[in-house]
Each structure stands twice: as C-alpha cells, then as structure tokens.
Amino acid sequence: MDKHEQAARLNPLLREVLELLGEDPDREGLRKTPQRWAEALLTYTEGNHIDPQEHLKVIFQLDEDDYPQDSDDMVLVDNIEFTSTCEHHLAPFRGVVHIAYIPNAKKRVITGLSKLSRVVETFARRLQVQERMTQQIANAIDEHLKPLGVIVVVQAMHYCMVARGVQQRSSLSLTTARRGLFHSNQNLEAKFQAYLKLRMDSSKV
After folding, report:
1. Could you give the maximum distance between any two Cα atoms of the chain, in Å?
2. Catalytic-residue membership of 88
3. Is 167 a known active-site residue?
4. Element (H, E) at 136
5. What is the CATH number of domain 51-203?
6. Which of 4, 14, 75, 175 is an S-S bond match for 134, by CB 3.0 to 4.6 Å?
7. pLDDT tens string for the chain (205 positions)?
8. Is 89 a catalytic site residue?
9. Distance CA 9, CA 4 (A)
C-alpha cells in the first residue's frame, strides 16, 4: 500500500477523531485537517520502512598510514538535531544526538559523516521512546561498521512533559549507549565528553 492509499484510509478515521473531540470537521479551518494530519503521521513514521544499513553501507577505506593499528582516535559528530514522536502519548520530543565511534584499525572503514545524521533520522521517524532510540542508533553503527567502540548520547525535551502532566518546560532527558571500548575504557568516554565541552565552549566565543 503506497502513501496515497494509506492517507486515504486514515482520512475518515482522523475525521472521526475530530468529531469525538467535539470539533466540526467541516468548518473552514478543519476541512483539510484530516488529510494533512494523515500525511503528517506518515511522515513522522516513515523510518519504519527504512533500513539504516542503506545509509551505513556507504563506506570509505582508510590507508594504513592514515590510521595506525594502535590508534584509539575517534570520529565524532555532535548536535545532530532530531524530532521524534513519543509512542506513549503521540506527542513530539526533540533534541540533539552526539555520536562518536573508533574505526576498526584492521578494517580501516569509515562512513560519510552525513550518514550518521541519516541513521538518527531513520530511527527518529518512528513511534519511539528515547531510551530505545539511543540503543538502536548505537546498535546500527556497531553492527554495520564493526568499529572498536561506539558511544551515543541523546538530549531531548518531551512535549508530553511540557503540555500535560507535570508540565516541566525546562527539563531535558539524557540517555546514553556504549559499545566496545567505550564500555570498557572510561578514559575514552572522558575524552569524548571533553570534546563535547570544547565544542560548547568554542560556540560561546
């Protein structure tokens, strides 16, 4: 079933939702809302139909001189922005992802930096919880690139906490996932955190 067919089937269901909320779906402002809502929902969840391997299979080989066997230098991409949808309340949550991995010196394989952003987007465009999304990003990089180590840190604001319940407007949630050397060597995580702090400090200059 393509997106047009999916939207057509969602349309009357979402129209009924508006009616149950006490709205008039035929009034001017809401007349096209079920269709727009259907299209938006399909966009929010399109990551269900994308395999992250499609992004991570784009790899580049390093020469041995470029990356010595005993190196634990990392590839780091920070502040990857995302917006996702909480599966508990269907409310958005948004934030940033910081990723670092240590290429396997024997394989000497890296991926394009933009591909890490694509991986984040793939998992963010699903009904999600932040904890699972963090682990999924780390698992995908670990599985497909076979690095020596991976670390993923996600910071997000959840609108289910802002607009309902405890209504915390300045609260951020932080989740982490570690694989390989980042799990066994705390010095590497400290190095990663130092890089992030350096990045934040330089942004204030």
Report:
1. 68
2. yes
3. no
4. helix 130-145
5. 3.30.1130.10
6. 175
7. 888 899 999 999 999 999 999 999 999 999 999 999 999 999 999 999 999 888 888 677 776 666 656 667 899 999 999 999 999 999 999 999 999 999 987 766 789 899 999 999 999 999 999 999 999 999 999 999 999 999 999 999 998 777 665 556 667 899 999 999 998 898 999 999 998 887 766 555 3
8. yes
9. 9
With residue 53 as reference, give the H or E element that holds it: helix 53-56
What CATH architecture applies to the domain 3-43?
Orthogonal Bundle (1.10)
Residue 151's nearest CA partner among 85, 101, 79, 90 is 101
Active site residue 183: no
158 catalytic residue (yes or no): yes
* Catalytically annotated residue among 6, 89, 135, 155: 89
The residues with which 150 forms a beta bridge, in sequence order, are 101, 179
Whole-prediction pTM: 0.88
- Domain residue spans in the chain? 3-43, 51-203
**Taken in order 97, 103, 109, 110, is the CA torsion positive or negative?**
positive
Q: Which two tokens stand for residue 95?
A: 């934030």
CA distance 81 to 78: 9
